[in-house]
Amino acid sequence: MEIRTLTANDASAYAKIRLEALECNPEAFSASVEEHRALTEEDVAARLYPADPINNFVVGAFAGERLMGTAGFYRDKGLKGRHKGHIWGVYVTREARGSGVGRDMLGALLKRATGLQGIEQITLSVATTQDAALKLYQSLGFQSFGREPRALKIGERYIDEEYMILSLDRGRNLKVAGILDENHSSGCETK
Ligand SMILES: CC(C)(COP(=O)(O)OP(=O)(O)OC[C@H]1O[C@@H](n2cnc3c(N)ncnc32)[C@H](O)[C@@H]1OP(=O)(O)O)[C@@H](O)C(=O)NCCC(=O)NCCS
To answer: Cβ distance 137 to 164 under 8 Å?
Structure first.
């Protein structure tokens, strides 16, 4: 499986897998199928080629030409929030699950994100229905810091979300998880 950052050239494959994610696991994402269908191809391409691609990117996992998984990252822009990054849109297509694709994608994302100068913490939210995702994030060192009841409403059904944070603490958590080697310099280190 090749893991790389998606570019505007991947827009059509990305739009397809994103639609699959929203259709197959609606409870896992705050975006809806209806909203996704309303996007033009240009909207999707813009997400993959944002104005600030250093601090805002989507990684994808490929089996040959086929996109099998995605994970997005963005960093807050403001002076008071630039130390914070966020993960969104984590998805692995059903047939590729359980063989390390999700872990490898997040590993690649975190390696790149933690190399950004000044990043100190990374947050995400995960629906409490998503056991595999919760376990994956915990195994990478993310810790829960709260739960939003009824965060999503899908028809008449409510879904709670868990808020999780990875405090980079000089990358210690990621070294423990085997994502970073001992020599990796995380963005929050000051030398
Ligand atoms: C969450 C998801 C991305 C994991 O992808 P994956 O490629 O299957 O994950 P991996 O094979 O890399 O497994 C990584 C870890 O996840 C956890 N995990 C994976 N599948 C699991 C399962 N069925 N049950 C419990 N834990 C599981 C384990 O901790 C696993 O580590 P281990 O293999 O060392 O035990 C995938 O299940 C998915 O797309 N789920 C639906 C969408 C979703 O919930 N996205 C998260 C939105 S916040």
So the answer is: yes
